Amino acid sequence: MYYHDLIIEKATTADGPGIVELLKSRAADLKSKGSMQWSFLLTGQEDREILALVSKGLFYKAALESGIQNQPPSATFMLSNTQEEWDIHLWGQEYTRGTVYLHKLAVALDHKGEGLGDRLVDWIKQHAEEQGYTKIRLDCVASAQLRSFYDKHGFILLKIVDDHCLYEWTTKR
């Protein structure tokens, strides 16, 4: 799927290692700046779970149209229309028809500051609507920068649970 200058598609099992590496590189960068966000990814204990979620077709990859084939993704994210264990912990067990959960949105460090995250969120919202979803839910750590990012994109902060901001975006239908 093309979106402006991006190619966005479901990740395949072969993309799994590149996605794990992208997430770990972002976690390491955050840790070097004093943030513990995603630091659990650096232990390697989540690798198998992430690879399994990629294999289930829940992860997407994005590359710049000008990017070379077979290169690591420029960005990644996960969309799930069912609650994962973490979602249940934060949101409680819920009836989720019409809701999609967004997780692990990450842009590769060499594309940081290029507005790629903004374009991805716009695509995710459009894609969710096209797929018939009425809500996108996500959680993020309570950093001012992340909160500002999601606020700017029309996500509404519903509550904070265990230092995680729970955001929701609702279609205009």
Automatic annotation (TrEMBL):
Gene3D superfamilies documented for this protein: 3.40.630.30
InterPro entries named in the record: Acyl_CoA_acyltransferase, GNAT_dom
N-acetyltransferase domain: residues covered: 6-173
Coiled-coil boundaries: none
Signal sequence annotation: none
Name this polypeptide is given: N-acetyltransferase domain-containing protein
Organism of this sequence: Sutcliffiella horikoshii
